[in-house]
Structures are given as structure tokens and as C-alpha cells.
Amino acid sequence: MVFLNDPVHFVAGWANGLLNGWGLTANLATIIIYLVGITLLIVFAMVLDIMLVWVERKVVARFQDRLGPNRVGPFGLIQPFADIIKMVIKEDITPAGADRIVYNIAPVLAATSVIILWAILPLASTIYGVDLNVGLLYIVAAGSLGTLSIIMAGWSSNNKYALLGAFRMVANMISYEIPMVIILLVPTILADTMSIKGITQAQSGMWFAILSPLAFIIFLISAIAELGRSPFDLNEAESEIVSGFNVEYSGMKFGWFYAGELLHAFTFGGFMAVLFFGGYGGFFGLEKIAFFSWLNNPFAQAVVFIAKAMFGYWVIMWIKYSMPRIRIDHMLAFNWKFMTPLALVVLVNTAILSKILPPPPSWGYTLGMLFSNIIIGFITIEILRAYGRRKRKDETRFTPQVVQD
Amino acid sequence: MNIPLSWYLILAASLFCVGLFGVLSRKNAIAILLGIELMLNAVNINLVAFWRYLDPIQMAGQVFAVIVFAVAAAEVAVGLALIISVYRRRNTVVADDIDLMKW
Amino acid sequence: MEKFIIWLLPLPPLLSFFLIILLTNKSNKLSHSIAIGAAFLSWLGSMVIFIRALGVREFGKNVFGSAINWLPTGATWLKVGVLIDPLSAAVIFFVAWTVLAIFIYSVGYHNFGQLKGEHDIPGLPPHGAVSKDENGHQHNVPSIEPMYARFFAFISLFAFGMYTLVVSDNLLTLFVGWEIMGLCSYLLIGFWFGKPSARNAAVKAFMTTRIGDVFMLLGIAFVYSFTGSLSFQEIFKPAMLQALASTPAFFGLTTAGFIGLLLFIGTVGKSAQWPLHVWLPDAMEGPTPVSAMIHAATMVSAGVYMVIRMFPLISAGWSEGLPLNTTMSIIAFIGAFTALFAATIAVAQNDIKRVLAYSTISQLGFMIAALGIGAYVAAAFHLVTHAFFKALLFLGSGSVIHGMEHGVLHTGDHTIDPQNMFNMGGLRKKMPITFWTFLIGGFALSGFPILTAGFWSKDEIFAEAFGNGHLTVFIVLAIAAFLTAFYTMRQITLTFFGKSRTKAAEHASETTWSMTVPLIILSLFAIGYGWVGIPEKFPGFGGIFPNWFHNFVGGTLTETPKEVVFSWIPLFTSLGVALGGLFFGWLAYRRVESPAEDKLQIPILINKYYFDELYNFVFVKPAEWVAEKFSYLFMDRIVIDGFLHGVARSSLFLGSLFRNKIDKPIINELIGDGTGNIVKNSGSGLRKIQAGRIQYYMIASLTVLVIFALVYYFLIGGM
Amino acid sequence: MTVERIIFIAAGVLILGSALMVVTTRKLIQAALWLVSALFGVTILYAMLQANFLAVVQVVVYIGAIAVLFIFAVMLTRKEMRDNSTQTRSNWWFSALLGGLILSGLVFMILGEPQFSRLAESIPPGLDTLRNLGTALVSPGAYVLPFEVSSILLLGALIGAVYIASRKEEDK
Q: Per the CB < 8 Å rule, is D33 touching A140?
């Protein structure tokens, strides 16, 4: 039962004993165990990543009324491995005039910036890498590394399309980092901590998606923009800049970018689950009922978490495959003129309400937060509607009349 | 924590002097700003190290490190804006060529 | 409270002046609203002050006044302040009423609400406009004054000057108000500066009064140098007066007498006494409200007010019963002479306003004469009553002229002078309100018995003159009074009675309410104000009303002048001259149709005893000759120009000498260029370190830092 | 030699090596990337000093914003300064001498101060430095004034940078 209740520490303790038995010093044993743990985590993430390729292709196919991969293995399950083999055996091109070192570092950095996020992602109450007290900022920091990797890739390719794509992507990411950082403060205020685990525990009673749906929506949009997925996928707009910053990459280097992007999307699904849907925790205190106490088991928690993350990932995909691409200037204007102000309003609203409403485990708190968000959302929509109406009126007013002969 | 404080200080001093060398010797104005960033980081290392070694309860060191971040961000934003503006007008980023105000 | 209001009294018109000039001069309506509003505010304040003053027991000893330090004069301060004593209370009463009446009257007089004339230009009287009624008939109607707003600005400033003068407690602010009025009278007489006659009249008025003002300023300076103060209350302290009276000055006069004489010359200029009377008739070139303002209500009154105010100084050392001192004799002589002299001229004038102008001079002479014989209460009383009925007469004459102008416009015959009385006649029917009010004013001026204010005030002067034994003055004034009644009746007869002598007079029409209402108000005062000063011993009427005015104004001095013993002789004299003059005037002019039938059109009278020509010959021509021959041809051209040319030539010579011998070789090359070269060379050497290259600066400063650190460590640190 | 010292030395080597590359490399874009490397080394130092917040902020602000900004600027102004031309001034040796002198002076002073050889005490358990930092930044008794001043500085820099770098009409 120990293993079932606390698998990580159980295994670590066992390994420690084993290594000590082999005659290693305690310090060295700790380091080795950490390294092994990190490797295991990465391997888990990458295997998941491979599976995500299949999931993505299947889901896209369903969205597009196709069957998707179905030849290699049952339901096409082996298809992603075939893809990987194809990528690995392709020729690995480094263009002439490219900055070789930077060019080769960039895809690794891109994948790294995603994988390091898994260090703080808690699969269950006892299965997690590290519980940082600045966890939310860590997400943003990892995103910065992603930005860096993209600009490195774009610049080092010695290709103007790559550079253009990188510029657009970086402008996009840096811009959408701002509402993201702002909105990450909302869960911080609600949970009174920046630690991911603390936030998860704070949602044992009520999900933050219900306390602050607007924050969730803003986080979702900026996460999509951060990922560079459609509708914010101008960085790799095939029809315009021939696949953007990674145009010169081929083979497994491209594979790293691809894998990184997929895993990034899933990871953000996981963060959505953690920040707004209670993470590995159950459903509104369900696990406190004796009948559902099995939900407190780490493995059950991990399953719940993966399910929630998959749901978030599915939402991202859903949006990706149903929305057209947004123009770059509209994209930036949307961020600066709509997202950032709205995020600030939501943040200020949350901060004030958290001080004046009755303390959290109460109906007043929940309903106050929810209704304030609904009111803000309603006002926002009304403003947008009035703006759109005026804009349309202006457009019709200045449209020249076609003269009929 | 068995690293002496002086290690940090010497590392910071070295980083500072490397940055100083960059500031004094580079031609490109952007490179000069890079050197300044190194120097600011050296300062920050000192601040955080002093905080950790002398008085971890009072947050003075960290607070001022945060403020140095803000100053650095502001300095880079304005400095690079100036350099780009100069570049647009005079088509140069060499600090020595930006000398219209000389004698 | 009272002090506060008194301080504020002059302010509304001043504010109104600036508001109109600076902001609202585009809007006629706003401008006259502001001006009349300001006049109304001041009127209200004055009435409050006046009524409060009535409520004070022995007001002469408990005056309203306050003063503030204004100008540091070494260890002391020149104080300015305000003062309302019985005299100024009486004066401010009539000033407030007449100013308000004149302001309202001006609205109608300047044809507010009428069309703009097509040919009207600023600087000329409006020519009238053509209006079409709904039937398409064209009518010639009066047109609005082009500089309407400016007029209200000027009279507002004028009102400010008068209020300042009246509420002053010292000679300095009194003089300030005095000079502001001088300026305004110049501006207003020359209001229609497009007419050459108006321009000349304005200059004449300004220059003539300036003569008086210079002497007055001398007098003020003398007072200040002697007493160290300009405050009335300081000057009129008994000890001070004693000192003034006992110190001899020039020409055998005492200091008090000499100062009084200097100040009196100011009055002569301001109140148009002989020999400086010449400007007042010419001042009739201004708009009629100006004539009323300057020549009845305010400015000429200011002169008399000033001498009455300075009476304690003038009469220092004199007390009732004693023979007059020199200054008082001079004053009495000039007053009486002017009264008679101006009355005789008035008899022969044909211009309706000129008659009134000479009549004003004459009446002012009455006051001056009364003052000269020590009857300053009588003088003040006549000042007040005269202000009311003369303002009434001027405004009435303005109304007549306005009506006549209407007729002139209607007939289209512009050769007719609407101010000439021989063009009028029969206006009684056409302009009833104007007629009755004018009649009241004229009777008051003549001294029509019992009813009118003029009778009581004039009677008091006669009584004082007779009772104190100044028979000469008495007789001269009696003759003048007779002439006054005569020419007043002549004016009324020619204007209002008989038949219309021109077509214009036939079509004259009554003026608007804004002109007639002030007339009615003023006519009430022209009748009623006399009743406050009926002597107690007067048969029949004495004692009905107490002789309030005498007690009230008489309280200004420390010792109340005793009322003169009643005598039948002056009473009958004044009855006789008034009724006789009126009767003969009517008798002589009831049938006169043209100037030719007027027996009194004697050249010497028409030409005002040739005073203008005399002054022209004695002063103007010699001045012109001196200016032309001596100043210009000799002094300027030969002496001064020659001297200047000589200086210039020698300077030129010296200059070139210095330039060639000293400047060029020594200063320029050695000192100037040498210094410059040194600086330049050192600068071009030093500029290399000022390279504009930031890294050089940093390297230099860091090098210095390192050197200092090394120096400190090895030399000073000494480790 | 403990693990910490090994990590410290590794980080130090990373920092100083990167810094030297920053100031000496000819390709400016690589200098900027080396700066990222140096800054990352500093992040390790922060983490070792248990300043988690600063470590993360270092990545966010320096690597995520400042370094990217530098790279942008380098790319925008690349036309004139060819990467293969010399990047250092002719008197670089004097600068090096100056830097070396100052460094030796500083090291001399640091080593001469006995207090600097102390070791760090462990942070008392239960001391939430992140919470303390947040409180210190906004409590009136502590550092709210410098904090607000620096925020105003940032705002001013934001506006100023936008204004300076924006293309004006006459430039077109």
C-alpha cells in the first residue's frame, strides 16, 4: 500500500538504499536518483508526446470528417512511431551561411522549454517534480526560453522567410505574455500562493474556472497565442511565409519543433486543468465522500489529471481546426486593445472582491466572484457590440455606391 | 551552504570588470549596452548574496535587486530605442560616430 | 459696514469701464446693462450710506471714515482713505441720483434699439437711417450711435472719478478723481471727434482746466510740505489751521490764504469761473448727456465741492462778523462778477445748450460768491439744488434737441440747426412731458417762489449776503438773479410757447420713456429738495420742516454757523427779481419770431465780450509767434542745431582720432585679437579631449578613479 | 569540494566565459546569445542563493525580454556594422588594463575583509521569503516608495521608448 499511496518516494527510498548498498556516498546517491527521476519524467513526457501525435491526427480527422491514420497498427496506433522513423532517417540539412551552433541549439531549446515545464506539473498529490513557490512565474520563464529558441532558429537559418516568421512569432509571444502574466495573478490571488500544488489544493472546494470564467478564457486565448496555434499561427503560415521560422529545418530537428509544439499544447492543457479545473483534485469535494475516497489514490489522481489535461488539449485543438487565421496587426491590436485591458479589469476586480467578500468556503464568495465575472463579460460584449456597430456603420457610410449604367 | 561570501563577491567583481571592459572597448553602441547589462547583473549578484549571507529576514537585498531589474529593463528599452532612432537618422550604431555634439 | 460700502462705492463703475472696454464692447446691450448696473450698485450704496448717515446723531462729529497706509514716505506713511461727513453725504446723494438718471437717459439719447445708419461712421453723430414699414413706406428714423458701447465705458469711468473725488478723505485721491474727470471730459467732449469743432473744444477744455490744475497741484504740494499730510482731518485740526493762518507767505497773504488761493484757481478752471470760463460753452459739442454730466451733476460741481471742502483752510483766522480776509474777498469778487457776467452773455445766446452753459457758469458764480462771504452752507445748498435742476434742464434740452432731430429727419431739411431756439416754438403740445419738466427746471433756476428748490437756496444766499453786510455782493447777485429769470423765461418762451417757426418743429415728437423717466425723477427733486432747507424764521413756511440742511451740513465744521437773522429785504428782493425776470422774459419774447426781432442781440454779448478773441490775441498769437520765430527759427535752428552740429563734428573728429590711433592698434589687435587668439588656440588644443565620445569620458574618469585609489592607498592610507 | 562548490564553480565558469565572449566576439548576434548564456549562469547563482523569485524573474525579464530586445535591435541595425569588421576600439588594451586594475583592487579589498569569508546560515524553516518580499515591496513601512518610483520609471521608459523609436512623419 505504501507504493500505491506514495509511489515516487517509495521508489526513491528503495533506489537510495540500493545505491547505498552499492557503496556510494549519500550525496552522490541523491544526485544519481535525481538524474534518474528527471530522465524518467522526460521519457514519460516524450512517450506521451508520441501518443499525442496520434491523438492529434485522429481528432483532426474527426473534425474534418475523415478517418485519420488507421493502417499502421490497431486504429493506427503505431503511426506516430512510423512518423518518427521517417523523420530520423531523413537527411539533416544545415543551410549554407547558417550559424551552425545556434542553428543546432534552437530545436533542442524549443523542446527543452516545454519539457522543463513538466518539472512543476503535478500529476498527483505525491507525483510531481518540484513544488516551486514561484511556480506560475516559472511557466512564463519557460515560455521566454521558447521565444528565444524561435528567434535563434529564425535568425540562424539565414533565410528571410525564417527571420520574418521568427519576428512575427516573437512579437506575438511577447505580446501575449502580458495578458497571460496578468491573468496568472488571478489564481494567485484566489489561492493566495504561486505554488502549483497550493493552487490545486485551493480548488478542492470550487474550481477557479467557476470563480473566474473570464480569467480562464483569457488564459486559454493567450495560451493558444503563446503556442502559436491557429488562429494565432501566423508564424508558420504556409501560404504566406512558407512555414515560418522552421522553414530550413528538416529531419529530426524539425521533429523537435513539432514534438515541442504538440507537447506544449498538451502541457498548457495540463496547466489549464491545474489552474482552473482543480488539477489532480476531484470534483467539488467529491473525494471527501467516503464512497469516492479511492479518488485520493495517486494513480486515480493521475488519471483524473490526464483526463482533464486531455480535455484542455482537446479544446485547443477544437479551436485550432475551426477558426481561420487572424491577420498580424489584428492579432496585436486584439492583444493590446482588448486582452490586456480586460485582463487588468479582471485582476483588479478579483483583488478587490477577495478583500470585501466573505472568506472562501462560502456561497457569498463563489457567487460574488462568478457574478462579477458575468457582469464584466456582459459589459465587455456590449462595448464590443457597440464598437462593431459603429464600425460597420462607418464602413457602409464610406462605401462608394456602384453606379448602374 | 558552505561557499564563502567572498566567492560570490569575487565572481561579481570579475563579471563587473568584464562588463566594464566591454563598455569601454566595444565600438557598437548595442554592444556597449550588453556590457552594461553584465555590470548590472554583477551588481545584482552582490545584492542577492549580501541578502542571503547577512540578513535573510530583511528583504532589502532582494527588493533592490528587483528595482535593478526594473531599471535595467527601462534602460534597455530607452537605450535601444535611442540607438534605433539614431540608426535611422545617421545610419550608424558606432558610438564614436554619434558625436554631433562634439566641440 | 459703512466703511466697507464707502470703499466699494467707486468700484462698480470702474469695473464696468474695464469690462466694456476689454470684453463687451461688441455688444451694445450688454455694455449698457453693465454700465447701468454698475451705476445702480453705486447708487444703492450711496443711498445706504446716506440713510445711515441720517441716523447718526451729530453726524459732523461722528463721521464715517477709514484710512490705510499707502505710500511709505520715509518714517511716515502717506495715507489714503475714505470719508463721508455731512457735506460729502449731501453731495453723494445728488451725485448718485443724477449719475443714475443720466446713465438711463443715455440709452434713449443714443437711440438704442434703432437701426444702424448706413452712412454712420465712428466719430460723427449718427445721421439717421432709413427704415421700411410693412407697407413699403420709407421713413427716416434716428440711427444708433456707432460708438455706443464706448460712450458707456467713458461715462462709467467718469462716474468712477466723481465717486472717488467725493469719498476721498485727502487731497491726493481727490486730485486723482479730479484728473480722471478731466481726462473723461476731454474724451467725452471730443466724443464725436470727426467734427473739428468737437476736437477743438476738447483740446480747449483740457488745456484751460489744466491751467487751474497746475495751480491746484502747487497748492496741494504746499499743503503737504507745510503740514506733512494731505488728509482733511489732519489739515483741519484747529492747531494746524492756527499755524497756517499765522504764518505769512507771499504777497502779504497768510499761508492758509495763499494755499486757499492756489486751490481756488483749480476751482476756477474746473468750475469755469471768470477768467477761465471759456471752455464750458464750447464743451457743448459733446453729446447732451455729457453736458448734463459734466456741466451740471459732476465735474463743475466738483470744483465748488472742493472749495467748500477747503473752506476751513480758506477761512482760517476768520470768523463770522469779522471783515473778509484777502482770499475770501478775491473769491467773493470773482464769484459775484462771474455770476453777473455770464448771465449777461446768456441773455443773447440762441443755442439752447449754450444758454444753459452760461447759466451754469453764472450759478456757479453764485455759489462761489456765497462761499466768499463765508456762507458755505448756503453754497452747498445751492450746489445740491443746482445740480438737480441743471441736470434736469440739460437733459430736457437734450430731449428737445432729440425731438427736433426727429423732426429734421422727418422733413429731410438738414439745414435746420436743431439746437437753435429760433427754429423751435410751440413744442409745448408736441412734447408735453419734456415741456412740464423743463418748466419746473427753468422755474427752479429762476427761483420761482416757494415751490421750487432754486428759490430756497438762492434766497439763503441773498439772506446771508444781506445779513452779513456784503451789500455789493448782494446787489450784483440780485441783478444776476434777475437776468437769470429773464433769460430762462426767454428760453422757455422761444422753445415751447407760440407757434412752430419751422417745419421741423412741427414734426418734433416726444422722446422715449428712457429719456422722460429721468426727467420726471429729477423734476421731483428740483421741486422737493428745496424744502429741506427752509429757514426757521421764514414767514408762513418756517418751522413746517426744520431747517435740516443747515443743521446737517453746518455740522461739518467744529462750530455750527449760526443762522442769519431773518430780514424782509432779501426776501422781497429775491421774490421781485424772480417774478420780474420771468414776467419780462415772457413779455419780451412771446411774439419774437426771428433773431432780428430780438432787441438784445448786441454784438458784444453775442460774442461773449470777445473773450475768445482776447485770449487768442493775448496768449495764442504770441505763443505762436514765439514758437515760430523764436523757438523754431532762432533757438532750434541756430542755437541748438548749431551747438549740436558743432558737438557732432568735434565728436566725429575725436572719434576718428581714437579709432585710428588707439582702438585699432592697441585695443583691437593687441588686447582683443590677442585674447581671442589665445582662447582660440588653447580651445582648439583642448577640444580634442571634448570629443563627444562617451567612451573617452568613461575611460578618463575611470583612469582618474584608479589613480586616486592608488594614490590614496599608497600615500594616504599608508598601509 | 562539495557538490555546491562544484556547481558554483561550473556556474562561475559559465558566467565568466560567456561574459568574455559577450565582450569579445565579433558577431554581435552571438554576443547577445552569449549574454543569454551568462544571464542563465546568474540564474543558477540565484537559485543557489535560494532566491527563487529572482531566479525566475531573471529568466523572464532578462532572457525573455531584454535579451530578445537586444537580438531584435542587433537585427534591425545589422546593415551598417558588418559582422566580420573589427568590433573593438583601437585602445582596447587600455580598457583591459583599467578593468584589470579595478578588478585587482576589488579582489584585494574583498579578500582583506575577514567578514566576507563567512558561510551562510541556513534559512530558518517556515520563513517564506517570497511572501516577505511581496510584503516588503508594498508595505508603507518598507520599500513601497522605491517600488512605486521604479514603476513610474518603467512607465516613463515605456512611453519614451515608444516615442523615440516610432517612425515620425518626416522620416518617411
A: no
* Structural domain count of chain C: 3
Q: What is the pLDDT of residues A48-99, one digit of tens each?
A: 888 888 888 888 888 888 888 888 878 888 888 888 888 888 888 888 878 7
Q: How far apart are CA A109 and CA A150, in angstroms?
A: 9
Q: Report residue A242 CA to chain centroid gap.
A: 25
Q: Is residue D86 part of a domain?
A: no
- Single residue among D53, D80, D107 that ends a domain in this structure: D80
Instruction: Spell out the residues 6+ positions from residue A288 whose beta carbon is closer than 8 angstroms to its own.
Output: A204
Q: What is the number of structural domains in chain B?
A: 1
- Three-class SS of residue C81? strand
Sign of the dihedral defined by the CA atoms of residues C674, C677, C679, C682, in that order: negative
Give Cα separations from D11 to A246, B39, C511, D46, D61 (angstroms): 31, 17, 107, 11, 20
Within this chain, do residues C347 and C440 fall inside the same structural domain, yes or no?
Answer: yes
C651–B contact, CB cutoff 8 A: no
Angle of CA points C253, C254, C255, to nearest 5°:
115
Domain that holds residue C627: 614-676
Is residue B99 assigned to a domain? no
Within 8 A of D95 by CB-CB distance, chain C residues are: 699
Out of D87, D115, D164, the one facing B26 most closely (by C-beta) is D87
Q: Is the pLDDT at B12 greater than 90, yes or no?
A: yes
Cβ neighbours of C695 in B, within 8 Å: 23-24, 32, 95-96
> Cβ of D106 under 8 Å from any chain A Cβ?
no
- Which residue, chain included where needed, has cell 452752507? C377
C373 contacts C332 by C-beta, under 8 angstroms: yes
pLDDT at B39: 92
Q: Could you tell me if residue A128 is left (phi over 0), alpha (psi between -120 and 50 degrees) or otherwise beta?
A: beta
Residues of chain B contacting D145 with CB distance shorter than 8 Å: none
Residues C441 and C335 in one domain: yes
Residue D24 domain-assigned (yes or no): yes
Contact between chains at C691 and B95 (C-beta distance less than 8 A): no
The SS3 of residue C82 is: strand
C468/C520 same-domain check: yes
Q: Residue A214 and residue A349: Cα distance in Å, rounded?
A: 11
Same domain, C509 and C415: yes
Give the pLDDT score at C228: 78
Residues in chain C where the model's pLDDT stays below 50: 719
Does the beta-carbon distance from A152 to D33 stay under 8 Å?
yes
Asked if D67 lies within 8 A of A148 by C-beta distance, the reply is yes
Instruction: Report the pLDDT value the prediction gives residue D76, as an integer from 0 to 100.
Output: 77
Interface mutation target, options B96, B97, B98, B101, chain C, most CBs of C under 10 Å = B96
In a domain, B22, yes or no: no
**Grid cell in block for residue C504:** 421741423
Question: What is the DSSP code (8-state) at residue C589?
Answer: H
Q: Which residues pair with C138 in a beta bridge?
A: C132
Query: Nearest CA to C396 among C424, C429, C431?
Result: C431
C516, HSE (Cβ side, Cα atoms, 13 Å): 12
Say yes or no for a CB contact (<8 Å) between C702 and B20.
Answer: yes
End-to-end CA distance of chain A: 88
Mapped onto helix, strand or coil, the DSSP state of residue C535 is coil
- The answer, yes or no, to whether residue B14 has pLDDT greater than 90, is yes
Are residues D64 and A151, on separate chains, in Cβ contact within 8 Å? Answer: no
D2 and D76 belong to one structural domain: yes
Query: Residue B52 domain-assigned?
Result: yes
**Nearest CA among C482, D132, C650, D90 for reference residue B60:** D132
**3-state SS of chain C: helix, strand, coil percent to 5?**
70, 5, 25
Instruction: Pinpoint the alpha helices (H) of D49-168.
Output: 52-57, 68-76, 92-112, 129-138, 144-165
- Is C316 within the bounds of a domain? no
